[in-house]
Design brief:
With 135 residues, the protein is of the alpha+beta class. It is 32% helix and 16% strand. The protein is built from four helices and five strands. The strands form two sheets. It has a three-stranded antiparallel beta sheet, covered by helices on one side. The chain starts with a strand and ends in an 18-residue tail after the last helix.
Length: 135
């Protein structure tokens, strides 16, 4: 069902329910809709505010910390941790001296700037890598 605010030729505004927009258009074209106040069948849609769900109808949002932790776990599961060798490994990957793979690790600000200046894509992560013993 769909509800519309309608207006007759005499400017009376009233509410009407229809099975669909097509049903409204069909009934309007056949002049089957009449104003309940004056019986006028010259009907058009009136301006109406959209129906907005109440605050209680909003979906529960996830905890941002939990979302960040989930993103960190996905990144770590799909990438190789290279620790403090990040800048060297990133440069080798970019230059084709190492097989392609996704990496993460640590770099100094100077190392990250040098990589970016050389056109090697890097970005800081919003979290510290979990403590690793394999790098």
């Amino acid at each position: 069902m769909i509800v519309f605010d309608l207006r007759c030729g005499a400017a009376h505004v009233f509410e009407a329910w229809f099975g669909s927009s097509v049903d409204y258009e069909t009934q309007r074209a056949r002049r089957l809709i009449a104003c309940p106040l004056c019986n006028d069948t010259d009907i058009d849609k009136a301006v109406m505010a959209p129906a907005v769900g109440a605050k209680g109808n909003r979906a529960v949002t996830a905890d941002p910390r939990a979302e960040l932790l989930a993103a960190q776990r996905r990144l770590e599961a799909q990438s190789d941790y290279v620790g403090s060798d990040f800048a060297t490994t990133a440069r080798a990957l970019h230059d084709g001296d190492a097989p392609p793979r996704s990496i993460y690790g640590e770099a100094t600000i100077a190392e990250a700037r040098a990589l970016a200046d050389d056109g090697i894509p890097v970005l800081p992560l919003p979290f510290k890598p979990l403590i690793r013993s394999d790098a």
